[in-house]
Structure of Sulfite reductase:
Amino acid sequence: MYRYNDIDQRMVDERVAQFRDQTERFLAGELSDEEFRPLRLMNGLYIQRHAPMLRVAIPYGHLRSGQLRALAAVARRWDRGYGHFTTRQNIQFNWPALETIPDILAELARVEMHAIQTSGNCVRNTTTDAFAGVAADELADPRPWCEIIRQWSTLHPEFAYLPRKFKIAVSGSLEDRAATRVHDIGLQMVRGNAGETGFRVLVGGGLGRTPVIGEVIREFLPARHLLTYLDAVLRVYNRYGRRDNKYKARIKILVKAMTVEGFAAKVDEEWRHLIDGPSTLRDEDIAHFAQFFEDPDYAARPGRTGDFALRLAEDRAFARWVERNTRGHKVAGYRSVVLSLKSTGSPPGDIRAEQMEAAADWADRFGFGELRVSHEQNLILPDVREADLYELWQLAREAGVATPNIGLLTDIICCPGGDFCSLANAKSIPVAEAIQRAFDDMDYLHDLGDIELNMSGCMNACGHHHIGNIGILGVDKNGEEWYQITLGGQQGEAARLGKVIGPSFARARVPEVIGRILQVYVDARAQGERFVETVERVGIAPFKESVYGAHH
């Protein structure tokens, strides 16, 4: 894992001191709201419904155990004892007092964390596969490249005031687990004809008010040209992107206006001035960053031990958890464990301070002191020996993070919604809880199989509802909260947007409507067919008929 050098640490420490002075001047009345606003946004601080909201960066979702303990300390000392993991692999605190923010940032700087560029019209946190470096299907480890992009983009003077926020995702595996097709730039690691590492480059993806699936503008970019090419893309966007209308300022609108071929031509024209320039990556640069992500000392171990196999055979609850909450590892004898933050009654993505501390202890005890945050808002222990899984499972159950629902209906991706966010049109958390309670039967959930349910409280789509197999969008109708349903969306290599099934529903009806949709699936599915595959095969008509009636 990357560790700060003296320059990194000094930069973050100086930023804390700078913001402390800005905050003190604001509180003393020396800065107006208008003057303070861009300063606080540069440090990840929003003013929400009830209190300031601080968004802390977790670069590409990686955490050391000590960093997670520091986040727990922040939650306990300065917030209400919990934090919220987001779909950008960051964490948000919803209740800190404004005057305490500099102290929080100072505490985070002590463990090499900050909130720089978690808001504002700049390059946001680069995201990647939560199983990077340990996935069995990985072509190349994306983490060194994410770190290169992080250092390139952090406080980049040319790209500090883009037309709108800008998001990059990197995938290094056969399966796209980083949602690269719905990012402003998606980078998929590929191999060239000679086996060399490169990137397939996609642009113009994004959700929000105008959801778009990104398109490929370069099938193979040699890895050494990554930064010069990103410079070219950002320069074209910075020059031609609209600044007169925030809803039309994203790169996806520009790509659509230029056509993808026209945009790619502009990028190539700009790249000709940059290619092989000072930003070209040398082999020693790449090796420097790769060294931070070398494999830990995996002990040579056999595959499944006798005890592990015996536990699987004898304990159905444990076997179910292993099936849903663990993933295969590139090293035999190890698995990656997903700690579910989606237990019934808990807001999706929320984690209490004591759960953070427990997970940090498990990372040290059962792994190598590392954890990952997934864009599905769960927490991951990447390296756990199979022989330790039964003990870990028992501890995780006691801590309330072992619900065996990963990838199932109640593993809901959800924004904070109207309970906290001042942009939201409707609440998300009570709807998620109502769905969790209505479908709390694990046998039924496991029979249904893989279903992604995503929910957003407004068109900004922080809950990625457009690419949920079932998507729920909160809308405002004359001051009342209603919920629009989409079906058939999905993330990954075959990413596509869901289709709206019809008029929206009152909050109280949402669980019943979901139940009707699920019943259509159960009645229509073929052997082994997933929910989204059934929707694709039969279309949305039978679902509409079930929900609205035959004559709708």
The mean pLDDT is 95.
